[in-house]
Amino acid sequence: MSSSISVPRSPPSPASVPTAHKKVKLATIDGDFAEPVQQASGSGSGSGSNPTAADGKVDNRKKNGKKESKQRSRRAPPIDEVLLHDLLSTLGWSELPKPSDPPSEAQTLGQRLWPKTAPAWKSSRGGKKAVEPVAAEENENKVEQPASSNDWGFTEAEFTVVALTSHGDGIAVYPVAPEKPQWAIIMPFTLPGDVVRAKVTRHQHYHSFADPLKIISSNPSASTFPIQTTRDDSLVGCKYFGTCAGCQYQSLPYEQQLALKRHVLVKAMKNFANLPSEQIPEVKETIPSPKQYNYRTKITPHFELPKALQTGKKGRQALNGAKKNNAASAAEAQAQEEQASNEQNEISAELDTPIGFEGKCKPGILDIEVCPIATEAIMNAMPAARAAVKQNIRSYKRGATLLLRDSLVPEVSAGGSSETEQKEAEKVDPVVDVPAGVMDEEEQGMNEGSTPEVAIATRRSSKGKTIDLGLSTDVKLKSPEEHVCVSVHSHTVTERVGDIIFQFPAGSFFQNNASILGPLTSFARDQIDKDSDEKKESYLVDAYCGSGLFSLTLAEHFTQVCGIEIDPNSIAYARHNALVNKISNATFHAGASESLFDTVTQSLAWPGDKTTLIVDPPRKGCDEGFLGQVVKFNPKRIVYVSCNVHTMARDVGQLVRNSNAGGAKGYKIDSLGAIDLFPQTHHTEGLCVLTREV
Ligand SMILES: C[S@@+](CC[C@H](N)C(=O)[O-])C[C@H]1O[C@@H](n2cnc3c(N)ncnc32)[C@H](O)[C@@H]1O
């Protein structure tokens, strides 16, 4: 990243919230290109169930009809709980003061900005006028502060970054004197030790969001943040870094990225496990990714159709044109002129349509031509995919999310994976027309609990349970291995983990960093190898099994394995993958873990003390009922793999507490760590092993 970043403002985004189990609709989390959730950054914290966000008072505005709804719409969204903890620890507070009861240090800023100055959290565009920016040269050797707190909204100022949020954004405090911070400023793409000129864009409860304009200086050794962060802009591998919401850490040495992820896990356990510190073991070093660029096997660039091209408006324009053409000849010339101008507008809109990912500070979609964290096959396919969209742009109604997925090429025909079909698959599917902004399902947790609609060659039995994929189970990979890019959701993708071949539909879940799958599955295998007697009689239940990643790579170590997965298509592919790899000790069950776990374990009658359970849930974590069933079944070991360390901390804490209730000996945390599934981003993939105390 250059030291001068031009990033004018931040769009709002939802947030990641671990909170309680049950009915709470958790915001989706993390860290893909839309960076929708974990970004509490310039784009703000978002939805969440933070009790401190509401002032706890009876809301009298309810009586005031229209006025009330106007005021309400101005209320800032509640603070994401993960961000809340980061703010509290940075400000040195135990809780965020209520607006009506600010601590004396926060009186000035707190009372004026929250909640009385209603427009304060509106964007600078629609909100209060910014105070005149001070000329850059005036700032030298002096820390700028607003003349009064009322002038502070949406101004530019210099801030010193003192910490990082779990979402990878810098936090500065105000006033700058660190003994008495009263307010926090959150800025994306900044690091502890940076002095940053930034434009404040939005205020929230005791914190504001700002967009960095220029890194004035960087002195990590002056920072008290526990993880060293040494800005090295020569490491940045992408021209969009600093504007694209996808990556946060490209300017950091890789070891420091790994240390930050470990730190996020440490904080998650401290803040969300609700366990005494002696029950939380030392968090291990983060397992690195063999590849730090060109690793990502799936990306989903998207676009929104410009207004001028959207069907309704276009139709109206055409209609208007026709009406004018029928009018008297005096009006005809003008009508034709207008029509020509409309057409001209449409053409330029067509040419300018950005196709890419969410911008970090600028609202809307950023046009992305290359994404260096994606695999080469995907990078090679991007120009054609983008060109196809532009060529067919008038066939879309509103916009679309494209799918670009890396696949190995099988030697022999295997349904959608034969060479000819792979060539077909490489064409961009022009008919997918979904709202732009719908991002990677797995990263946003959008496939949680739902059965995605897919159009693979399927045949359901009368009970609706069996799906015949019509794929050959004789799958051999081309040698040397070849990669292609698949862009049709229903087409079959092929992947290899060690000696095991996996196939799955391009649109369904599979881990998105192929280079990490060896270390990830080895980690799970190492947990089992600890007990030599397990080789005699041992069982594995793989809850949330997808297309069988853990069940099938670990099957040889167990007498029998079984997988449970909510997506019937993934289950169909898991069964297919067992056949492809000639694995005969694996069975798979379609349904929600919380509905099936009891039934499946009872019918299999595997003894808990000979059974290992792998749990790899979506971002929202496990259902509370499921955790209760697990404690009842009492497996000897639980390996929890998680794409959201905050919900993992919550679930693991609950398992430990519930199993130890009433003085019984239950589970203890045996090992805790993270694995780097997504280098350059803040995404932290957690690994936790629980064993029964004996
Ligand atoms: C993070 S993925 C892990 C998949 C697999 N373990 C892998 O690594 O490929 C989570 C999986 O859980 C599935 N899922 C979501 N909710 C579920 C539920 N309630 N019960 C069972 N599976 C569920 C999703 O369809 C998805 O395949």
Automatic annotation (TrEMBL):
<feature type="binding site">
    <location>
        <position position="511"/>
    </location>
    <ligand>
        <name>S-adenosyl-L-methionine</name>
    </ligand>
</feature>
<feature type="binding site">
    <location>
        <position position="544"/>
    </location>
    <ligand>
        <name>S-adenosyl-L-methionine</name>
    </ligand>
</feature>
<dbReference type="GO" id="GO:0009451">
    <property type="term" value="P:RNA modification"/>
</dbReference>
<dbReference type="InterPro" id="IPR025795">
    <property type="entry name" value="tRNA_(uracil-5-)_MeTrfase"/>
</dbReference>
<keyword id="KW-0949">S-adenosyl-L-methionine</keyword>
<dbReference type="InterPro" id="IPR002792">
    <property type="entry name" value="TRAM_dom"/>
</dbReference>
<feature type="binding site">
    <location>
        <position position="565"/>
    </location>
    <ligand>
        <name>S-adenosyl-L-methionine</name>
    </ligand>
</feature>
<feature type="active site" description="Nucleophile">
    <location>
        <position position="643"/>
    </location>
</feature>
<keyword id="KW-0808">Transferase</keyword>
<dbReference type="InterPro" id="IPR030391">
    <property type="entry name" value="MeTrfase_TrmA_CS"/>
</dbReference>
<feature type="region of interest" description="Disordered">
    <location>
        <begin position="1"/>
        <end position="81"/>
    </location>
</feature>
<dbReference type="InterPro" id="IPR029063">
    <property type="entry name" value="SAM-dependent_MTases_sf"/>
</dbReference>
<dbReference type="InterPro" id="IPR010280">
    <property type="entry name" value="U5_MeTrfase_fam"/>
</dbReference>
<protein>
    <recommendedName>
        <fullName>TRAM domain-containing protein</fullName>
    </recommendedName>
</protein>
<feature type="compositionally biased region" description="Basic and acidic residues">
    <location>
        <begin position="56"/>
        <end position="71"/>
    </location>
</feature>
<dbReference type="InterPro" id="IPR012340">
    <property type="entry name" value="NA-bd_OB-fold"/>
</dbReference>
<feature type="domain" description="TRAM">
    <location>
        <begin position="149"/>
        <end position="214"/>
    </location>
</feature>
<dbReference type="InterPro" id="IPR030390">
    <property type="entry name" value="MeTrfase_TrmA_AS"/>
</dbReference>
<keyword id="KW-0489">Methyltransferase</keyword>
<dbReference type="GO" id="GO:0008033">
    <property type="term" value="P:tRNA processing"/>
</dbReference>
<feature type="region of interest" description="Disordered">
    <location>
        <begin position="94"/>
        <end position="149"/>
    </location>
</feature>
<feature type="active site">
    <location>
        <position position="643"/>
    </location>
</feature>
<feature type="binding site">
    <location>
        <position position="616"/>
    </location>
    <ligand>
        <name>S-adenosyl-L-methionine</name>
    </ligand>
</feature>
<feature type="region of interest" description="Disordered">
    <location>
        <begin position="321"/>
        <end position="346"/>
    </location>
</feature>
<dbReference type="GO" id="GO:0030697">
    <property type="term" value="F:tRNA (uracil(54)-C5)-methyltransferase activity, S-adenosyl methionine-dependent"/>
</dbReference>
<dbReference type="Pfam" id="PF05958">
    <property type="entry name" value="tRNA_U5-meth_tr"/>
</dbReference>
<comment type="similarity">
    <text>Belongs to the class I-like SAM-binding methyltransferase superfamily. RNA M5U methyltransferase family.</text>
</comment>
<dbReference type="GO" id="GO:0032259">
    <property type="term" value="P:methylation"/>
</dbReference>
